[in-house]
Write a structure and sequence with these properties.
With about 650 residues, the protein is mainly β. It has a 22-stranded antiparallel beta barrel. The protein has a 5-stranded mixed sheet with strand order 3-8-9-6-7. The chain has a two-stranded antiparallel ribbon with strand order 1-2. A hairpin with a 3-residue loop joins strand 22 (about 365-380) and strand 23 (about 385-400). It is globular, with a radius of gyration of 24 Å. Mean pLDDT is about 90; it is low at about 1-30.
Length: about 650
C-alpha cells in the first residue's frame, strides 16, 4: 500500500470547490460552542483544556455508523482495532480504552474491563452532541481520565419540536453501500403542559464489509436495535426533573477478538450484547441566586454479553457488568469567582461465567469509588484568570473469592492549575497543569485461569494505580472582518506533555501471563486547529502529532497514532438549503514502533470524502431532509497505525428523513 502523494488529493479537494464551515462534517467552533464535558458550562475559547465538540448537524452530514466514527477526524484522535463497529476504540493523544472516561448524559460508562470487546454501543442517531476532552482530566472525572474524556449527550424533545409545536414524528431511512447497511429510525416527541417527552427507536442490519482491497471482511455483519425514552418535567422556569432510558441489543458473528482475523486462538463466536441504561436527573438554577446552579444525576447501567463458540468444543461465555452511580455538581457564579464543586460515587459489579461455572478470566467482584472535587475560576483584573482545582478519590477493589488476592483500598489526590491571559481581544493564552490516575481494574488485579493453551494467568493484587501529569500551553485566536465584512477566522495551537507513571501492561511469558506496572511513559506533541468562514464558503485545517516513549529504555510506545492532517472545504447553495462539502484526511507513515512489534512500519494514506445535504425551505417540502455522501472516494486500500485489519473501501451513503 504505497503512500499516495498528499498534494494530489488536496488539489482534487480544491477542484471540487465544496467544503467546510464546520469541520467538513466535524463541526468545531472555538467561541460560540458551549461545552459541558468540563462539568461546568463554558465556551471552548475560554476553557483552558482542549475540548472539541461534534454537534448534531455534523453528525447528520457525516452519517457515521458508530460513535468512534463521529470523532475520527479530530486532531490527535484515532480510531483503532479495525472497522468492526463493536470492536472500535478511540485513541486520544496515544491513550485509549480504560484510560479514557466515557459519559452519556452525565452517567459514567465503565464497561471496559472485558478483553477485546468494544466500548461504544449507543447509536449515533440518538445523539445531539459528542464532546472530546483531550489530556488528563482527573481533577474533573477521577479514575480513568488520564488520556481524556468523551461526553455524549442524547437528543430531547426540543431537538425535534419547533417552539410552536406540541407533537411531531420524524422518520428516517438510510443506506450505506460498503456493507449494505440498512438503517431506520422513528422518533416521536411532544409537549404536554409543563412536561415534554421523546421516544425513539432504531434498527440497523449490515452485511460483510467491503475493504479497500476489494475483498470482504469476513464475519463483519451485524444487527443492532434499540431505543431511547426521555421525559422531562419543568417544575418551574428554574427547576427540572428528567428521566432517561436507553437500550441496545446487538447480534453478530465475529472473532472472539474482532480486531484481528480468525485463528486457532481467536475462534469465531456468536455474540449477543444487551445494554440498559437508566438516568434520573435534577436541575435547579434560580435566576436571582448566583450561589445555586445544581445538577444531580442518579444512574444505573447494565451490560450483558453472551458468546457462543461456533467451532470446536462447545463453549458459552457470559459477562454481566453493572454500574450504579450518583453525581452532584453545583456552580456558584459570583462577581469575584466561578466556583464549581461536587461529589461522585459509583460501584461496578462484574460477574463472568463459562458453561454456567465461574469464569476465572473475569474475576467476580466489585469496585467502589467515591470522590469530591472543587474548581475555581478567579479573574485577576481585566486580563488574567487563574483556575485551581482539587479532587480527592478513594477506591476499593474486592474480589468475591478472597483466595485470588487481597482487597485493595487506596486513595488519590489530583491537582490542577490553569492560568489564562487575554492578551488582546483576538488572542487568549492558556497554561495548564492537570493530574489524573487510573485505578487497576478487577481483571488486571485478580485474573487467573487459562489464557491460551499452555499459558495461565497469574493474579497481581499489588498493582499500583497509573498516574498522569499533563502540561499544556495553548493560544486561541479569533478574528472578525479579517478579509471581508462578516468573516470569521478561529485558530487554536496547543502543545502538550503527559507523563504517565506506573503504566499497566499485560506481560505474556512462555507459561504465564500477568498484569504489571512496567514503565513510566512520556507522551508529547501538538495540534493546530483552524476554521475560516466567509459568506457561503468555509475552510478548515487541522494537524495533530503525538510522540510516545518509555522514559527508562527510550523505546517507542505502542498505539501512538500517526501524524494526521485534515483539510475541509464547504459551500452553501440556494439560500442555505443545500450544503456541499469535501474532506481530505492524510496520515503519515508511522515507523516509530516498539522493538518486537508485529510490523516495523505502517504505511501512510490519503482518504477523500464528499457529502451533500438538502433541506428545502419551500412550504410544501418543509420537514424533508436528504443527505448523500461518499467516503473514501478513491477506494483507497489502507489501515490505521497499529491496527491489524484494513479499513472500509469506497462507501456511498444516503439518508432521507421527514418530520411531520
Amino acid at each position: 500500500m504505497p503512500e499516495q502523494p498528499f498534494w494530489q488529493l488536496t488539489a482534487l479537494a480544491s477542484a471540487l470547490a465544496v467544503s467546510v464551515s464546520s469541520w467538513a462534517s466535524q463541526k468545531v467552533t472555538f467561541d460560540e460552542v458551549v461545552v459541558t464535558a468540563t462539568r461546568s458550562e463554558t465556551t471552548a475559547q475560554k476553557e483552558p483544556k482542549s475540548v472539541d465538540q461534534v454537534d448534531s448537524e455534523s453528525i447528520s452530514l457525516q452519517q457515521p455508523d458508530s460513535i468512534a466514527d463521529t470523532v475520527k477526524h479530530l486532531s490527535n484522535v484515532q480510531v483503532s482495532a479495525g472497522p468492526r463497529k463493536t470492536s472500535q476504540r478511540v485513541n486520544i493523544r496515544g491513550l485509549s480504552e480504560r484510560r479514557i472516561v466515557q459519559v452519556i448524559d452525565g452517567a459514567r460508562q465503565n464497561f471496559s474491563d472485558s478483553g477485546h470487546r468494544g466500548l461504544f454501543f449507543i447509536e449515533p442517531e440518538l445523539l445531539k452532541s459528542v464532546e472530546v476532552v483531550k489530556g488528563a482530566s482527573g481533577s474533573l472525572w477521577g479514575s480513568g481520565a488520564i488520556g481524556g474524556a468523551i461526553g455524549l449527550t442524547t437528543i430531547d424533545a426540543d431537538d425535534i419540536l419547533d417552539p410552536d409545536e406540541n407533537f411531531a414524528v420524524k422518520v428516517k431511512q438510510a443506506y450505506q453501500s460498503a456493507d449494505h447497511d440498512n438503517r431506520n429510525n422513528t422518533t416521536l416527541a411532544g409537549r404536554l403542559g409543563n412536561t415534554d417527552y421523546l421516544l425513539s427507536t432504531f434498527y440497523t442490519d449490515s452485511n460483510e464489509l467491503r475493504l479497500g482491497s476489494g475483498k470482504d471482511l469476513e464475519n463483519s455483519a451485524s444487527r443492532h436495535k434499540g431505543g431511547l425514552a426521555k421525559w422531562r418535567w419543568h417544575l418551574s422556569e428554574d427547576e427540572m426533573l428528567k428521566f432517561t432510558y436507553h437500550m441496545n441489543h446487538i447480534d453478530e458473528g465475529v472473532p472472539s477478538n474482532p480486531g484481528v482475523d480468525i485463528s486457532r486462538s481467536n475462534p469465531l463466536v456468536e455474540r449477543k450484547i444487551e445494554q440498559n441504561n437508566w438516568v434520573v436527573g435534577y436541575e435547579l438554577n434560580p435566576e436571582y441566586n448566583d450561589w445555586v446552579n445544581v445538577n444531580a444525576t442518579l444512574y444505573h447501567n447494565y451490560t450483558k454479553l453472551n458468546e457462543f463458540k461456533k467451532t470446536g468444543a462447545p463453549r458459552h461465555d457470559s459477562i454481566r457488568y453493572s454500574t450504579t452511580g450518583l453525581s452532584l455538581v453545583n456552580t456558584s457564579e459570583l462577581s469575584w469567582v466561578d466556583w464549581t464543586y461536587g461529589l461522585d460515587y459509583y460501584q461496578d459489579r462484574v460477574e463472568g461465567k463459562r458453561n454456567g461455572a465461574d469464569r476465572p478470566e473475569f474475576t467476580d467482584g466489585r469496585s467502589t469509588v467515591w470522590g469530591v472535587f472543587t474548581k475555581l475560576a478567579i479573574p485577576l483584573g481585566d486580563y488574567w484568570t487563574i483556575q485551581p482545582g482539587l479532587r480527592f478519590d478513594q477506591f476499593d477493589n474486592r474480589p468475591d473469592d478472597s483466595s485470588v488476592g487481597k482487597d485493595q483500598t487506596e486513595n488519590e489526590l489530583s491537582k490542577s492549575l490553569a492560568i489564562s491571559y487575554n492578551l488582546f481581544e483576538w488572542l487568549t493564552l492558556h497554561a495548564l497543569y492537570d493530574e489524573a490516575f487510573r485505578a487497576p481494574s478487577l481483571q488486571e488485579l485478580y485474573v487467573f485461569g487459562t489464557h491460551f493453551h499452555g499459558n495461565v494467568f497469574v493474579p497481581n493484587p499489588n498493582l499500583k494505580p497509573e498516574e498522569a501529569k499533563n502540561k499544556e500551553l495553548s493560544a486561541r485566536f479569533k478574528f472578525n472582518d479579517l478579509l471581508s465584512q462578516g468573516d470569521i477566522l478561529s485558530m487554536r495551537l496547543t502543545y502538550f506533555k503527559n507523563d504517565v507513571d506506573n503504566y499497566i501492561e499485560q506481560d505474556v511469558e512462555r507459561f504465564t501471563t500477568t498484569f504489571v506496572n512496567v514503565r513510566d511513559a512520556e507522551l508529547n506533541g501538538y495540534e493546530f486547529d483552524s476554521q475560516y468562514k466567509m459568506d457561503d464558503y468555509g475552510v478548515n485545517f487541522s494537524y495533530g502529532r503525538t510522540r510516545g516513549k518509555d522514559k527508562d529504555s527510550g523505546q517507542y510506545l505502542q498505539n501512538i497514532p500517526a501524524d494526521k492532517t485534515v483539510v475541509g472545504l464547504e459551500r452553501y447553495f440556494l439560500q442555505g438549503d443545500v450544503t456541499a462539502g469535501v474532506r481530505v484526511t492524510h496520515a503519515k507513515n508511522q515507523d516509530q514502533v516498539p522493538v518486537g512489534n508485529s510490523q516495523s512500519n505502517y504505511d501512510g494514506y490519503t482518504v477523500t470524502d464528499v457529502y451533500l445535504s438538502w433541506m428545502p425551505s419551500q412550504k410544501k417540502l418543509e420537514g424533508l431532509r436528504v443527505d448523500f455522501g461518499i467516503d473514501n472516494v478513491t477506494d483507497r486500500h489502507y489501515r490505521t497505525a497499529f491496527s491489524q485489519l484494513d479499513e472500509s473501501g469506497v462507501n456511498a451513503k444516503v439518508a432521507v428523513s421527514y418530520k411531520f
